[in-house]
Amino acid sequence: MGSAVRNAAIYARVSTQMQSRSSIDDQVRKCRQWAELHDFQILEGHIYRDETLSGVGYDRPSLKLVLDLAFSIAPPFTAILVDDTSRLSRATEDALTIFKRLNFAGVQLIAVSQGISSNDEQSETLVTVHGLVDSLYVRELAKKTHRGLEGTVLRRCHYGGACFGYKSVSAGPDGSKRLLVDKSEARIVLRIFEMSDAGYSLKRIARKFNEENVVGREQWCPTGIRSTLKNELYKGLVIWNRSRFVRVPGTNKRRRKMRDQSEWIQIERPELAVVPAELWNRVQARLNLHGAKPAEGRRRGLFARGFTSPYLFSGLLKCGECGANLIVGTGDLPPPAVQRLAAITSAAAHPKGATLFVEGQSPRGVFILCSGKAKLSTSSADGRSLILRISESGEVLGLPATVTGKPYELTAEVIEPTRANFIPKEDFLLFLREHGEAALRVAQQLGETYHSAIEEMRTIGLSHSASEKLARFLVDLAADHDEGKCKVKLTLTLTHEEIAQMIGASRETVTRLFADFKKKQLLKVKGSTLIITNRAGLENIVDS
Question: What pLDDT, on the 0 to 100 scale, is given for residue 81?
Fold first, then answer.
């Protein structure tokens, strides 16, 4: 009697698009030849291919599929053929794990070019040896690639992809490239910096560019504006080797980690500067001001409003908790003004749920949040509430009412343990009369508050649907926490009821829309953690 037919699957892989397109076909062909010589029958429906995926992890779609079948109750094949162990995995521990699991499942794994079979007693030793070689190959390849990129930078050539504001031209027969300033795009870059310097927020710049159909981007967004403002190349400085990517064990995912600054390579390229140094420095000071944390280790509030407007009395008040400056400054008032401000200020702690002031109450003075957060809301006669925004550390609350003498227009309620500095109304107004610089800052703050209120009314009043309002709310969150990534992960401290009060909808509507957005794979929710997985999809809802 002849031996039973042994069915086999084939798995093949290439790492990059630079590899020959015929490489996978060659691997499959070699596996077929081996199968024919050793009486294995290849199942045509079980030839699995992973293209442009590294072999350092085993979270590859086709590999996962073939392994899932192998570990099933009734696998359709008794063997899996690969060209060599590096196609399976370049990580020794991963390759050994796969070999052991397949042995346990009764499915033979064969590396045809190396003559390794998981049925052999020496297979683990052979896999270990070849795995070490493969692992060394990956590390050496990474070093050579890094060395090549370093040489490119030192030769003053361009090492990356397209960069807005510049055009890439050939730098020699070796295929290297160099950058030249694109004058039309450079004017747009300069305008972005000038608008930021003039006080425009990231969202206002993006919105204005979209309204004007400014060329260069299909859709201008706040994260793209922020990346532009943070790019040192626009001031004529190339910084390379700032970070490195570390692969998460067992996966093909990579995480970015910053290198020590001593490892950075910085090269002055004045011919590439499109923004004057003075303008660059002013914009960075503004960005750093509103991006700074009040104290080390403390997270920013839910809404980074300080990023879009200058705080009042920057750098003048001390934190009652740690003694540090309450807010990093944009400039100091004269010493007598600073001393007077400190003398009329008192600090106090407020528990969660405490009310700083109530809508309609006569103004007592201004509160300056030192730590914690407070929600600002307004209510109708029938008891309905609308949360206008969440205030964060450093913001001045009750300013319009205190200056005008009219009742507080909103209710300020603490939503987490908070420390706040308080300045009584009479002392505050006298301080403004005596110090013109402080009065000018108050006027600027009131202007920013007005613009914020208009933006909130536009969001609530001009949105066509509740889904658009919620999508806009989430897009704003992504803009405040994002660094150019397609996914944004943050902690959501607001309840569905509070979100509903912020966008002018019911709690039931918000809950239903969250479920709908999750179904459309726009976001994920794990407890209090919100992961926005498809920001572009949310932006499409806003723009529709």
Answer: 94
In order of 372, 388, 501, the CA distances from 378 in angstroms are: 20, 8, 10
CA distances from 298 to 63, 292, 293, 301 (A): 43, 10, 7, 9
Distance, first Cα to last Cα, the chain: 70
- Least Cα distance to 221 among 520, 484, 523 occurs for 484
DSSP character at residue 297: T
* Predicted confidence (pLDDT) at residue 9 exceeds the cutoff of 90: yes
Domains delineated in the chain:
6-141 (3.40.50.1390), 166-283 (3.90.1750.20), 295-453 (2.60.120.10), 466-543 (1.10.10.10)
CA dist 451 and 235 (Å) reads 30
Whole-number pLDDT of residue 3: 56
3 state SS of 423: strand
**Which strand (E) or helix (H) includes residue 525?**
strand 523-526
DSSP state of 233: G
Map tokens 């949105």 to a residue. Answer: 463
Check if the beta carbon of residue 497 is closer than 8 Å to that of residue 459.
Answer: no
Six-digit token string for 109: 């794994």
Q: 143 falls in which pLDDT band (50, 70, 90)? A: confident
> Quick one: pLDDT at residue 33?
92
Residues 419/370, Cβ–Cβ less than 8 Å: yes
398: left (phi over 0), alpha (psi -120 to 50) or beta: left
Name the residue with higher pLDDT: 371 or 112. 112
Angle, helix 507-519 to helix 466-481, in steps of 10 degrees: 70
The vertex-112 CA angle with 111 and 114, nearest 5°, equals 70
Q: Token digits for 256? A: 């970015």
CA dihedral 417, 419, 425, 429 (to 10 degrees): -140
Length of the chain: 544
